Amino acid sequence: MATIYDIAKKTGYSISTVSKVLNNRSDVGEKTKKIINQAVEELGYFPSSSARTLSTKKSWTIGVVFVEDSGIGMEHPFFNAVIESFKKNAEKEGYDLLFASSKIGKESKPYLDHFMYRGVDGVVVVCSTLNTPDIEKLMESDIPSVVIDLDTRGVSVVFSDNLHGSELAVGYLYSLGHRKIAHIAGSEELYVGVQRLKGFTQAMEKHGLSVPKGYVVDGGYFTYDGGKKAMEKLIKQKDRPTAVYVAGDLMAIAAIDAIKENGLNVPEDISIIGFDDIQMARYITPALTTIRQDTKLIGKTAANMLIDQINNKKKQFMSVKIPVSLVERDSCRPI
Q1: Using the 8-state DSSP alphabet, how is residue 323 labeled?
Q2: Which of 113, 132, 138, 177 has its Cα between 20 and 30 A from that of 245?
């Protein structure tokens, strides 16, 4: 592996001059920079992480925490897409990601202790669960941080416009002539579950529609199994809904399967609209009409917010709401 000494020997410049170029110092001429950078490329030189840390006073590492109760974590397509976008934008600025464990060695430790031990420069938290003491402690620390998928005070947050997304979903079904609209909700322990249910209720009131008893069913933690069980309850309603707004795409896909297994069809018998626009939504039959979350923009915004805090050496308290949009496919029909 090439060293700074190899670069100095190849170019004829002193080690101090090479070091200045590698650290982007301004007191070196452009011709010198060009010669040294060309040698860096030819020799395949990479600065050691320890040397980089000493020269910049940074670890160049960002901690990542998932806080959600389904146990799915990064397997969930939404979380996966957001973190992938965050990762790409953080890597452009030279950062690596460190996914948190609740243990240091064999000993259980709070996330704050874990990240202090690892010396991370900042932390991104993907958190849908309300009132989590361990995360609140982390947010109250001096470590730069940003939270995704939760709107809370006293910390920088990035989240989708869940209320408007619900309004778009109900409004679209209403425009198709549906009046008997049910909702498969996410758990009330989750921020997005609460917000999307609130948006559904407000939208139904706006259009002068009643919500009969049994038309709102708890689908739990946005899982396939939760969505399927919830849809089976709605199918058994005496006055069956003509359309169902489902708070998450995985649950919506499960709802479609439940409808088919009960001898009914989508959208001929029941229209289904989801929320997320996960990649799978466009490939199922029928392709799922849904509310799209802009996962690329969420991840990019969160990365930029966190890196700004790291560079400014100061925690910021910002709240950024990312717009959502309706994606029309084949799972809804006019009546």
Answers
A1: P
A2: 132
For residue 85, the one-letter residue type is S
Two tokens, residue 327: 């994606």
CB atoms within 10 A of CB 236: 10
Output the six-digit token pair for 92: 């452009």
Q: State how far the Cα of 296 lies from the Cα of 288, in Å rounded to an integer.
A: 20
- The pTM for the full model equals 0.81
Q: For residue 294, give the nearest of 267, 321, 331, 313 by alpha carbon.
A: 321
Q: What is the DSSP string of 175-212?
A: HTT---EEEEEPPTTBHHHHHHHHHHHHHHHHTT----
The β-bridge relationship of strands 107-108 and 103-104 is: antiparallel
The span from the CA of 182 to the CA of 213, in Å, is 10
Residue 266 near residue 286 (C-beta atoms within 8 A): yes
Instruction: pLDDT tens for the chain, 335 residues: list them.
Output: 677 888 989 999 988 888 888 877 778 899 999 999 999 889 887 665 545 555 556 889 999 988 765 555 667 788 899 999 999 999 999 999 998 755 444 556 778 887 887 889 999 998 767 567 777 888 888 899 999 988 877 789 999 999 999 999 999 999 999 999 999 999 998 889 999 999 999 999 999 999 999 999 999 999 999 999 999 999 999 999 999 999 999 999 999 999 999 999 999 999 999 999 999 999 999 999 999 999 999 999 999 999 999 999 888 889 999 999 999 999 999 99
Here the contacts of 26-31 (C-beta below 8 Å, separation 24 or greater) are none
Burial of residue 220 (CB within 10 Å: 0-12, 13-18, 19+) is buried
C-alpha torsion sign, points 143, 303, 99, 134: positive
